[in-house]
Amino acid sequence: EAAVTQSPRSKVAVTGGKVTLSCHQTNNHDYMYWYRQDTGHGLRLIHYSYVADSTEKGDIPDGYKASRPSQENFSLILELASLSQTAVYFCASSDLGVEQYFGPGTRLTVL
Amino acid sequence: AQKVTQTQTSISVMEKTTVTMDCVYETQDSSYFLFWYKQTASGEIVFLIRQDSYKKENATVGHYSLNFQKPKSSIGLIITATQIEDSAVYFCAMREGSALGRLHFGAGTQLIVIP
C-alpha cells in the first residue's frame, strides 16, 4: 500500500483561481515536504514542515502557502494560480536525516 | 549557488554492462547526507541509496553502489549488470547536517539501457 498519497493526481486550473493540493502519509513521519518539478528538471523545495501546525519556507515559496493540520496531512495552496505554476508537484515524507519517500505526484496545468 | 550538479544529461549503455553517473556537490557543513533517487517513466520517484559524509565505506545496495570521493565533493552512482528496467532518470541529492531535512537535488541524468 502506498504510504504517501496525493490528490488530485491531475488538475486543470484557471489563472487567478485557487488551487489546493493535498498529501497524506501513513509512514508516521514527522517531516513532510512539497516540491515542484518542471519538465526536464530536478525537484525544487517549496515548503516543508517538521511538526503539525507549523510550516517552513523552502527555496521557492513565493506564490504558495502550506498547511499542516496533522502529522499525516500536508496541503499546498495556490491562492492565485498563475501560468508559471504549471508543473508536477510532489509531496514527500521522512524522519530527520534519512531518505524521503515520495508520493505519485500531481500534474497541475494552469490555463 | 547550485549545490548539487549532475553534468551528464543522458547516458546510453548496453544491457548487462556497468554504468557510472556523476554528481558533485557544494557544502560548508562538516556533516551531510547524499542520496540517489530514480524517477521512472511513470513519474514515480524511488529512493535508491544513501551515503553519510562521516562514513568512509562506500554504500552498496543490490546492484547499486556509490563512489564517494570526499576531497573532490563527488558522489558517483554505479549500476552493475544493468537491466532494461534500469532505464530512468537518476537524481542526486544532498542534505546538509544543519538543514532540518531539506534536500537539494541535481538536474538528473537520463539512463537508457539498450537491449
What fraction, in percent, of the residue positions of chain B are helical? Answer: under 10%
pLDDT averaged over residues of chain A: 93
Rg calc of chain B: 14 Å
| Topology order of chain B in helix (H) and strand (E) letters | EEEEEEEEEEEE
Q: Could you say which overall geometry of chain B the principal axes of the C-alpha atoms support? A: globular
> What is the total tally of β strands of chain A?
11
Largest sheet of chain A: 7 strands, mixed
Q: Assembly type of the shown chains?
A: heterodimer
What topology emerges from the helices and strands here?
The complex is a heterodimer of chains A (111) and B (115).
Chain A (H helix, E strand, L loop, with lengths): L3 E4 L2 E4 L5 E7 L5 E7 L5 E9 L2 E4 L7 E3 L5 E6 L8 E8 L6 E2 L3 E5 L1
Parallel strand pairs in A: 2-11
Antiparallel strand pairs in A: 1-3, 3-8, 4-5, 4-9, 5-6, 7-8, 9-10, 9-11
Chain B lengths: L3 E2 L4 E5 L4 E3 L2 E2 L6 E8 L5 E8 L7 E2 L2 E6 L4 E6 L8 E9 L7 E2 L3 E6 L1
Parallel strand pairs in B: 2-12
Antiparallel strand pairs in B: 1-4, 3-9, 5-6, 5-10, 7-8, 8-9, 10-11, 10-12
